[in-house]
Predict the 3D structure of the following.
Amino acid sequence: MNKYEAIIGLEVHAQLLTKSKAFCSCSTVFGASPNTNTCPVCLGHPGTLPLLNKGLVEDIVKVGIATNCKIRPISSFARKNYFYADLVKGYQITQHNDPICYNGFVNIELDENERKKIGVTRIHMEEDTGKGIHDLDIDSLMDYNRSGVPLIEIVSEPDMRNANEAYKYLTELRRILVYLGVCTGNMEEGALRCDANVSVRLKGATKFGTKTEVKNMNSFRNVEKSIEFEIARQIEVLENGGEILQETRMWDGQKQETRTMRTKETAIDYRYFTEPDLIKVSVDEAMLASLTSQLPELPLNRKDRFIKEYELPAYDAGVLVEDKSIADYYEETCKHLSSKNPKTYKLVSNWIMTEVMRIVAEKNVSITEIDLAPNLVAELVELFADDVISSRIAKDIFPEILETGISPKKLVEERNLAQVSDTASIEKIVKKLIDENPEAVEKFKSGNNRTLGFFVGNTMKLMDGKANPKIVTEIVNKYLANS
Ligand code: ADP
Ligand code: MG
Ligand code: ZN
């Protein structure tokens, strides 16, 4: 109901792609046999000592820079104490009062002309827990391979006002993480997890309403749907004179609803204290400068540049930058063009968005795996940009180029596929067709425009598809008008 306004803040956990765990040298590889990637440190044996993985610090600082955060020169680790079967040590190493990154923001695109800054309160380092396997008949089993895998938690300000903004923030954040190469961004595999904090208030009210926290959403769409559901539910409760309880709710994908998981009557006391086994983390100017220089151009900046530099429509730029490797491929192809202008840039974009991305989707691989050199795409596009071949022929020969890596120019020469723009030979055929089909000519004269297509189509056919369709149409028009 539009007398209410929703307030949303997200807590996002991202699993990092470091080869080894946060505080030991065990492998982080996904899908190994249960409990094979473990050691006394990540199993929490008494007397063992954690040793910080430098890669974890480098990755989180990169994320911090990319989300415009301040980076704390000195920060510390804390112990968060609680008991759970998947937390074999009885505590989680995390950061508490002095997160390494804080006070940042992420820009999201509300639509083509409007962007919004979503504040990032903090980003801190922590370790993942093990995983319980409860769906077996025999028993509940524990797999500690995930125990100690590095995580970062990204906490947003309560800056989002509807489910769609939350969806856009989450997808933008994912795009940044994937661009940085620090996380796969795969929600289904749990590499990216999101808890949504939702409250509603009357429009114009200054105080926030009581929030609920929704967990257990394993896809981007479910995050959006669960927030929508939760907003509607809270409004209904308030409209009926009820009160919102501060609680944790879980999303039930089957029933498409949220339901109470636990009510937070008092905050759980985690008895945080400074982790005594780890020294403070220091990020000095030199490290900051070196990591900043390693950062790739971020997706939204790149989109803006594509629009400016290649004069692409915003839609094209958006599609191309969605995946870093596709955007790289696009730029590499443009570099190989011999005539660099907005027209060919747009044709390359068309070709990549349709033909190349179709192959990528069909084969379900990344563009770097299809073994199609960008210079071949540039060559092919220029052949039809310059009217040497029709785009029909370009599409026909594309599979062969893809398969053999043969130069499009060479193939066109060898097969004699070059388009005929020589008017005399086209005129000869058009004239013959007109002489042989007086009824069609009559039909055209009585206003049936479809006969134009008949003549153009048959001329193309008689010339093996190699005639320049623009010239054919001109000539057919001329002859029909004069007959
Ligand atoms: P908690 O102590 O319950 O974990 P925090 O203050 O740490 O709460 O905030 C957790 C998340 O909830 C943050 O992303 C924050 O932006 C969001 N948040 C805080 N208050 C509200 C509210 N009233 N409505 C919606 N989201 C909120
Ligand atoms: Mg919190
Ligand atoms: Zn280990």
